[in-house]
Amino acid sequence: MQTAPPVTRKATRPRADALRNRERIVTAAREMFVEHGPDVPLDEIARRAGVGNATVYRNFPDRDALVREVVCSVMDRTALAAERALAENGDAFAALERFVHTAADERVSALCPMIASTFDEHHPDLLAARGRVERLVEEVMARAKAAGQLRPDVGVGDLMLAAAQLSRPPAGAACLSVDRYVHRHLQLFLDGLRAPARSHLPGATVTLEDLRQA
């Protein structure tokens, strides 16, 4: 007696309109989280996305799931920016500069407080997205150092911490009102990263592990 081979079930792909709705929700949530913080009502997010409340909950069963998806999507786009920088064949420091300015536009610094206060920062999806970004940024910086253009006494932690601080509005300032100053101040910081260094940095190079333990 022959045994029938197991049936391979083809995974059902989400419909195109369902994918568009999910993308609209994530985009609207990102905008509103940056503007108002993680406690913005979900029905307001649905309204901005142009979908019903049921569509939001069908894609994201709770607020934590939506916040996590927003943070991961921002990190994914930041990783793509780093990949584009690595794909450039020209000036390594100019590629680093373009990456930092692009990453600042993703407003990841405005979302950082949500990682610590809203959901599990050790969720596998978040860890994977963060790990990818960190590896790529290390490569972008390593290439600029190998070219003799980036001072050797700075680490990935130095870059990420300074970029986050410079692109985050100061206390008491409206989040969107200081956007016009972000790229100006980031460029001042980037100019200070060029080799040869014109000063001695106090303290030790900041690593990613230093940031995690801070």
From TrEMBL:
DNA-binding region residue numbers: 41-60
Key words, A-Z: DNA-binding, Transcription, Transcription regulation
Alphabetical list of SUPFAM superfamilies matching this protein: Homeodomain-like (SSF46689), Tetracyclin repressor-like, C-terminal domain (SSF48498)
Domain HTH tetR-type: 19-78
Gene3D superfamilies associated with the record: Tetracycline Repressor, domain 2
Highest rank taxon of the organism: Bacteria
InterPro entries: Homeodomain-like_sf, HTH-type_TetR-like_transc_reg, HTH_TetR, Tet_transcr_reg_TetR-rel_C_sf, TetR_SbtR-like_C
Signal sequence segment: none
Gene Ontology molecular-function annotations: DNA-binding transcription factor activity; transcription cis-regulatory region binding
Cross-referenced PANTHER family: HTH-TYPE TRANSCRIPTIONAL REGULATOR BETI (PTHR30055:SF234), HTH-TYPE TRANSCRIPTIONAL REGULATOR RUTR (PTHR30055)
Protein known as: TetR/AcrR family transcriptional regulator
